[in-house]
Protein backbone atom coordinates (compact mmCIF):
# COMPACT_ATOMS: atom_id res chain seq x y z
CA UNK A 1 0.00 0.00 0.00
CA UNK A 2 1.42 3.39 -0.96
CA UNK A 3 1.20 6.02 1.74
CA UNK A 4 -0.28 9.16 0.14
CA UNK A 5 2.18 11.25 2.15
CA UNK A 6 5.19 9.37 0.71
CA UNK A 7 6.06 11.80 -2.07
CA UNK A 8 9.35 10.98 -3.79
CA UNK A 9 11.70 13.99 -3.89
CA UNK A 10 14.91 12.83 -5.66
CA UNK A 11 18.11 14.86 -5.63
CA UNK A 12 21.44 14.85 -7.48
CA UNK A 13 24.73 14.47 -5.64
CA UNK A 14 25.81 18.03 -6.52
CA UNK A 15 22.52 19.50 -5.30
CA UNK A 16 22.70 17.40 -2.13
CA UNK A 17 26.27 18.59 -1.55
CA UNK A 18 25.25 22.21 -1.96
CA UNK A 19 22.27 21.82 0.39
CA UNK A 20 24.46 20.01 2.93
CA UNK A 21 26.98 22.85 2.81
CA UNK A 22 24.30 25.47 3.39
CA UNK A 23 22.80 23.52 6.30
CA UNK A 24 26.22 23.13 7.94
CA UNK A 25 27.01 26.84 7.48
CA UNK A 26 23.66 27.82 8.96
CA UNK A 27 24.29 25.58 11.97
CA UNK A 28 27.96 26.42 12.63
CA UNK A 29 28.80 29.67 10.86
CA UNK A 30 31.47 28.03 8.69
CA UNK A 31 31.82 25.55 5.87
CA UNK A 32 32.01 21.84 6.75
CA UNK A 33 35.44 20.23 6.89
CA UNK A 34 36.11 18.25 3.72
CA UNK A 35 35.87 14.92 5.57
CA UNK A 36 32.48 15.81 7.03
CA UNK A 37 31.18 16.83 3.63
CA UNK A 38 32.14 13.67 1.76
CA UNK A 39 31.15 11.25 4.52
CA UNK A 40 27.75 12.79 5.24
CA UNK A 41 27.03 12.96 1.53
CA UNK A 42 27.99 9.27 1.34
CA UNK A 43 25.56 8.50 4.17
CA UNK A 44 22.78 10.33 2.33
CA UNK A 45 23.62 8.33 -0.78
CA UNK A 46 23.37 4.99 1.04
CA UNK A 47 20.15 5.94 2.80
CA UNK A 48 18.39 7.18 -0.34
CA UNK A 49 19.40 4.79 -3.09
CA UNK A 50 21.89 7.27 -4.56
CA UNK A 51 19.41 10.10 -4.24
CA UNK A 52 16.65 8.40 -6.22
CA UNK A 53 14.43 7.28 -3.34
CA UNK A 54 14.36 10.36 -1.11
CA UNK A 55 10.86 10.72 0.32
CA UNK A 56 9.53 14.05 1.56
CA UNK A 57 13.05 15.51 1.68
CA UNK A 58 14.05 13.13 4.48
CA UNK A 59 17.68 12.77 3.40
CA UNK A 60 18.80 10.62 6.32
CA UNK A 61 15.66 8.48 6.63
CA UNK A 62 15.08 9.92 10.09
CA UNK A 63 12.37 8.02 11.92
CA UNK A 64 9.27 9.65 13.38
CA UNK A 65 8.47 6.92 15.89
CA UNK A 66 8.42 3.21 16.47
CA UNK A 67 6.96 0.39 18.49
CA UNK A 68 7.95 -0.02 22.12
CA UNK A 69 6.56 -3.13 23.72
CA UNK A 70 3.95 -3.35 20.99
CA UNK A 71 2.73 0.21 21.51
CA UNK A 72 3.24 2.73 18.74
CA UNK A 73 4.95 5.99 19.64
CA UNK A 74 4.95 8.88 17.15
CA UNK A 75 7.28 11.68 18.19
CA UNK A 76 7.44 13.80 15.02
CA UNK A 77 4.80 15.20 12.69
CA UNK A 78 4.23 15.27 9.76
CA UNK A 79 5.32 11.78 8.86
CA UNK A 80 4.90 9.05 6.25
CA UNK A 81 4.50 5.29 6.59
CA UNK A 82 6.74 2.62 5.04
CA UNK A 83 5.26 -0.36 3.21
CA UNK A 84 5.99 -2.70 6.10
CA UNK A 85 3.61 -0.77 8.37
CA UNK A 86 0.66 -1.90 6.24
CA UNK A 87 1.97 -5.20 4.89
CA UNK A 88 2.22 -7.99 7.47
CA UNK A 89 3.83 -10.20 4.82
CA UNK A 90 6.81 -7.84 4.63
CA UNK A 91 9.70 -9.31 6.62
CA UNK A 92 10.33 -5.97 8.31
CA UNK A 93 6.80 -5.85 9.75
CA UNK A 94 7.67 -8.23 12.58
CA UNK A 95 10.88 -6.35 13.30
CA UNK A 96 8.82 -3.16 13.56
CA UNK A 97 6.48 -4.78 16.08
CA UNK A 98 9.51 -5.78 18.16
CA UNK A 99 10.82 -2.19 18.11
CA UNK A 100 13.68 -3.06 15.75
CA UNK A 101 12.46 -1.04 12.75
CA UNK A 102 10.64 2.30 12.43
CA UNK A 103 6.90 2.50 11.92
CA UNK A 104 7.06 6.01 10.46
CA UNK A 105 9.53 8.45 8.94
CA UNK A 106 9.72 12.22 9.19
CA UNK A 107 8.36 14.37 6.36
CA UNK A 108 9.62 17.81 5.37
CA UNK A 109 8.17 20.39 3.01
CA UNK A 110 11.46 21.58 1.51
CA UNK A 111 14.97 20.30 0.80
CA UNK A 112 16.30 23.02 3.08
CA UNK A 113 14.21 21.83 6.03
CA UNK A 114 15.13 18.20 5.49
CA UNK A 115 18.85 18.91 5.29
CA UNK A 116 18.77 21.18 8.34
CA UNK A 117 17.19 18.36 10.33
CA UNK A 118 19.76 15.82 9.07
CA UNK A 119 22.70 18.05 10.00
CA UNK A 120 21.08 19.06 13.28
CA UNK A 121 20.64 15.44 14.36
CA UNK A 122 24.21 14.45 13.55
CA UNK A 123 25.60 17.45 15.42
CA UNK A 124 24.03 16.32 18.70
CA UNK A 125 26.35 14.84 21.31
CA UNK A 126 24.86 11.39 20.83
CA UNK A 127 26.17 11.16 17.27
CA UNK A 128 29.54 12.82 17.86
CA UNK A 129 31.36 9.47 17.29
CA UNK A 130 29.96 9.45 13.73
CA UNK A 131 31.48 12.86 13.00
CA UNK A 132 34.73 11.94 14.73
CA UNK A 133 35.07 8.85 12.54
CA UNK A 134 34.47 10.99 9.47
CA UNK A 135 37.15 13.44 10.57
CA UNK A 136 39.51 10.49 11.08
CA UNK A 137 38.74 9.45 7.48
CA UNK A 138 37.83 5.93 8.65
CA UNK A 139 35.13 4.25 6.53
CA UNK A 140 34.95 1.23 8.84
CA UNK A 141 34.85 3.43 11.93
CA UNK A 142 32.17 5.60 10.36
CA UNK A 143 29.95 2.61 9.59
CA UNK A 144 30.50 1.10 13.05
CA UNK A 145 29.73 4.44 14.74
CA UNK A 146 26.41 4.59 12.90
CA UNK A 147 25.60 1.24 14.51
CA UNK A 148 26.97 1.98 17.97
CA UNK A 149 25.22 5.35 18.33
CA UNK A 150 21.90 3.86 17.25
CA UNK A 151 21.61 5.83 14.03
CA UNK A 152 20.87 2.46 12.43
CA UNK A 153 21.68 -0.99 13.74
CA UNK A 154 21.79 -2.18 10.12
CA UNK A 155 25.30 -0.74 9.77
CA UNK A 156 28.55 -2.30 10.95
CA UNK A 157 32.22 -2.14 10.03
CA UNK A 158 31.66 -4.50 7.09
CA UNK A 159 29.95 -1.59 5.32
CA UNK A 160 33.24 0.29 5.30
CA UNK A 161 33.92 -0.71 1.69
CA UNK A 162 30.68 0.93 0.56
CA UNK A 163 31.53 4.20 2.27
CA UNK A 164 35.12 4.07 1.04
CA UNK A 165 33.91 3.77 -2.54
CA UNK A 166 31.36 6.59 -2.25
CA UNK A 167 33.79 8.92 -0.51
CA UNK A 168 36.41 8.27 -3.18
CA UNK A 169 33.85 9.05 -5.88
CA UNK A 170 32.87 12.38 -4.31
CA UNK A 171 36.52 13.29 -3.85
CA UNK A 172 37.20 12.49 -7.49
CA UNK A 173 34.50 15.02 -8.38
CA UNK A 174 36.29 17.47 -6.04
CA UNK A 175 33.20 18.00 -3.94
CA UNK A 176 34.21 19.93 -0.79
CA UNK A 177 37.86 19.90 -1.99
CA UNK A 178 38.27 23.62 -1.33
CA UNK A 179 37.11 23.30 2.27
CA UNK A 180 39.75 23.21 5.00
CA UNK A 181 39.81 20.33 7.46
CA UNK A 182 39.15 22.50 10.49
CA UNK A 183 38.53 20.77 13.82
CA UNK A 184 34.96 20.29 14.96
CA UNK A 185 33.42 22.17 17.84
CA UNK A 186 34.04 20.48 21.21
CA UNK A 187 31.21 18.09 22.15
CA UNK A 188 29.92 20.51 24.79
CA UNK A 189 29.28 23.07 22.04
CA UNK A 190 27.17 20.72 19.94
CA UNK A 191 23.46 21.40 19.93
CA UNK A 192 21.49 19.36 22.43
CA UNK A 193 18.81 18.51 19.92
CA UNK A 194 17.71 19.29 16.40
CA UNK A 195 16.24 22.76 16.02
CA UNK A 196 13.01 23.29 14.10
CA UNK A 197 13.79 23.96 10.43
CA UNK A 198 13.17 27.41 9.07
CA UNK A 199 10.64 27.91 6.31
CA UNK A 200 12.16 28.17 2.87
CA UNK A 201 11.51 31.37 0.96
CA UNK A 202 12.12 29.68 -2.37
CA UNK A 203 15.14 28.97 -4.54
CA UNK A 204 16.81 32.15 -3.28
CA UNK A 205 17.76 30.51 0.01
CA UNK A 206 20.59 28.62 -1.64
CA UNK A 207 22.02 31.65 -3.40
CA UNK A 208 21.72 33.85 -0.34
CA UNK A 209 23.36 31.38 2.00
CA UNK A 210 26.20 30.52 -0.35
CA UNK A 211 26.85 34.20 -1.00
CA UNK A 212 27.70 34.55 2.67
CA UNK A 213 30.22 31.70 2.63
CA UNK A 214 33.88 32.06 1.66
CA UNK A 215 35.17 30.78 -1.68
CA UNK A 216 34.86 27.07 -0.93
CA UNK A 217 31.07 27.05 -0.90
CA UNK A 218 30.97 29.26 -3.96
CA UNK A 219 33.13 26.69 -5.72
CA UNK A 220 30.77 23.86 -4.83
CA UNK A 221 27.81 25.87 -6.07
CA UNK A 222 29.61 26.56 -9.34
CA UNK A 223 30.04 22.79 -9.75
CA UNK A 224 26.30 22.42 -9.20
CA UNK A 225 25.46 25.01 -11.83
CA UNK A 226 27.91 23.61 -14.36
CA UNK A 227 26.81 19.99 -14.33
CA UNK A 228 25.83 18.40 -17.65
Describe this structure in words.
Helix 1 crosses helix 2. This protein has a four-stranded antiparallel sheet with strand order 2-1-4-3, with no helix packed on it. It has two domains: 161 residues; 44 residues, no CATH class. The C terminus is likely disordered. The chain contains ten helices and four strands, in the order ααβββααβαααααα. The protein is α+β, with helices and mostly antiparallel strands. 39% of the residues are buried. It is 45% helix and 7% strand. The chain is globular, with a radius of gyration of 17 Å.
Task: Offer a concise description of the structure.
With 228 residues, the protein is α+β, with helices and mostly antiparallel strands. It has helices at 13-28, 34-47, 83-86, 91-97, 111-122, 128-135, 139-148, 160-172, 204-211, 215-225, and strands at 63-68, 71-74, 79-80, 104-106. The chain is globular and about 50 Å long.
Total count of strands: 4
**Uncertain runs:** 192-219, 221-228
Q: Estimate the strand proportion.
A: 5-15%
Averaged pLDDT, please? 83
Taking the sheet with the most strands, its summary is:
4 strands, antiparallel
Classify the helix fraction into a percent range.
40-55%
Assign an overall shape.
globular
Structural class: alpha+beta
Computed CA radius of gyration, to the nearest angstrom:
17 Å
In the sheet with the most strands, the strands line up as 2-1-4-3
What string gives the helices and strands in order?
HHEEEHHEHHHHHH
Number of helices: 10
Oligomeric composition of the shown chains: single chain
Roughly how many Å apart are the termini? 36 Å
- Number of spatially distinct domains: 2
Amino acid sequence: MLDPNAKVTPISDSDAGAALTVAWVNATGRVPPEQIGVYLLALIWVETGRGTSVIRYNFGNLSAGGYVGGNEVISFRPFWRPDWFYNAANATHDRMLMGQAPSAFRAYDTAEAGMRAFVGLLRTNRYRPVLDAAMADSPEGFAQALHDTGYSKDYNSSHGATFRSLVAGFRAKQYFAAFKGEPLDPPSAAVAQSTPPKKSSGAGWLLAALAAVAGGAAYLYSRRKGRA
